[in-house]
Amino acid sequence: MIGRAGIGVDNVDIPGATAKGVIVMNTPFGNSITTAEHAITLMLALARQIPQADASTQAGKWEKNRFMGVEITNKTLGVIGCGNVGSIVVNRAIGLKMKVVAYDPFLSPERAAELGVDKVDLAELLRRADFVTLHTPLTEKTKGIIDARSIAAMKKGVRIVNCARGGLVDEEALRAAIDSGHVAGAAFDVFTEEPATENPLFGHPNVVCTPHLGAATTEAQENVALQIAEQMSDYLLRGAISNAVNFPSISAEEAPRLRPFIELAEKLGSFAGQLTETGILKAQLSYEGDVAGMNTKALTSAAIAGLLRPMLQEVNVVSAPIVAKERGIVIEEMTRAAAGDYGNLITVTVVTERQTRSVSGTVFADGRPRIVNIKGIRMDAGFGRSMIYISNLDKPGFIGRFSSTLGDAGINIATFHVGRDAPGGNAIALIEIDGDLPPQVLAAVRALPQVQQARPLKF
Predict the structure, then answer these.
(1) Which of 38, 212, 309, 370 is catalytic?
(2) What's the rounded Cα separation, in Å, for the pair 193 and 183?
């Protein structure tokens, strides 16, 4: 689900798509240059009152003395948000001989030095800037970042440009500041409500407005179209996921290697989920050996999906982390590069209101996912379509009685794997069968001596 250039993810129902398992990708780099150039263009148009002068001249007037502008050379540009687009704006502004200060909590000192900007806090940027341009996403922290208080902290005669997101600026407060003369003017390409047919900034002679044209160039549309095609091709052919807003990215190179581990993680989660009868408090995912260096976020999403699906049928690998968070389930990840008995090992530990249960698995060289440990008991079993999990006391005769019970019911055993913690102690069995296990046969198995628990499993 991908929008064309100019139609951002803000226009997509991300929660709805996530709930349905739809991966939403965007194309963050295809229109970056175009958006940055539009911001610079608006800044120049604002500085020289070009739209107003154009309208006046084409109306047959010759008001040469009316449109007195300002130079941008040696002026200070304050850039709020120095990511992909903001860094291009910085580059262009320095080329125009401007002094640039930037506010961005994620901008490292090394990156600031590379760009040639002074990294400052927001208060200093507002105090120093002759022009302010915004290039940050709209979040709870950035909403209204330019409000009446921040405008009052700016120097008199400042000019403000917004080509990022509507809602970053309090438009009512800005209009009042322009009316009072504290702000010399503003140039906006984005608005709190779009399409913007009415806005507090409209109609002011010192305001320049465009209808969200930041990505509207032929080059940007071509770049985004190519990027969309490449992303979809990588996903369909290799399973790669890039620039997704609701799922961890998976590169084309790592997708084939990651695929069997995603299958393993989901089945381990499913195993734990099918055995869980009470509320889940916490899920711990441990990655050891080679798998610890892989994309564990994607693996965790798969494991949580498997864990929750027996209780919530609609959950999927995209929605699982959100669903878990909504239900107050704590998710923890642990990685350890050192390998133990296996070159790679994934362990899913589930903490419920009554107990803690863990299951571990590995992927063999041939790509087969295997269960190798259940509740601390060694095991080596594959995942069959229909299986039975049994915990029992390790006493003579159990296997014979169990096999007879299934044989009498006409159920064929495909594989039979057992493990125990000590002779005569606790034992477990994983049995793959042909077909489903009828309820009456399950009841007969549970009635066998030494059986503590018997559960049918589906994979």
Answers:
(1) 212
(2) 22
Count other Cβ atoms within 10 Å, centred on residue 302.
26
- Residue 193 annotated among the catalytic residues of the structure: no
Would residue 212 show up in a list of annotated catalytic residues for this protein? yes
**pLDDT for 244:** 66
Q: In what order do the strands lie in the sheet with 426-433?
A: 413-420, 426-433, 386-393, 451-458
Instruction: Catalytic residue, from 165, 175, 309, 370: name it.
Output: 165
Predicted local confidence at residue 220, as pLDDT: 82
Parallel, antiparallel or unpaired: strands 386-393 and 426-433: antiparallel
- The question of whether 204 is a catalytic residue gets the answer no
pLDDT number for residue 6: 43
The list of the chain residues with pLDDT below 50 reads 1-6
Task: Say if residues 231 and 27 touch (Cβ distance below 8 Å).
Answer: yes
* Long-range contacts formed by 50-54: CB under 8 A, 24+ apart: 51/208, 52/205
Answer yes or no: pTM beyond 0.90: no
pLDDT at 300: 94
Q: Token pair of 424, please?
A: 């005569």
Residues in a beta bridge with 110: none
Q: Which of 63, 71, 194, 222 is catalytic?
A: 194
Q: How many residues does the chain have?
A: 459
DSSP 8-state secondary structure symbol assigned to residue 204: -
| Cβ atoms of residues 27 and 84 within 8 Å | no
- The full set of domains in the chain, from first to last, is 1-31+215-249 (3.40.50.720), 34-209 (3.40.50.720), 254-382 (3.30.1330.90), 384-459 (3.30.70.260)
